[in-house]
Amino acid sequence: ELQQKVEETELLKMELQMLETERVRLSLVEEKLMDVLQLLQQLRDLNISKRALGKILLSTLESCRDPQPGKAHLFEVLDTLYHELTACELLQSQALEKAQSRQSLSNPLVISC
Fold this sequence. Notes:
The protein has 113 residues and is mainly α. Helix content is 80%, strand content 0%. Helix 1 (2-45) runs parallel beside helix 3 and helix 2 packs across helix 3 (73-86).
């Protein structure tokens, strides 16, 4: 009976460890999904065309057609989509404009009228 309790305890420990691993994996997926959604929101605010957005999505799906062994396919797709979105010219030009405006505001030689 004691041996049975020990075995049950070991099984419960393994199950708990698997649940914790799954929780961490889901947390990473959720974080990446939030990043992707924020980028999509920014692109929507910049009035990206549906055609350009469709091309980004199709490019992502094409590059993730064959899942890499040892990688969670869902996370791989989200990660690839994230990188495709960050490479979007609209977001890069917006980031450049923000950086230039911050630089001009922080330049002590600029005199405002």
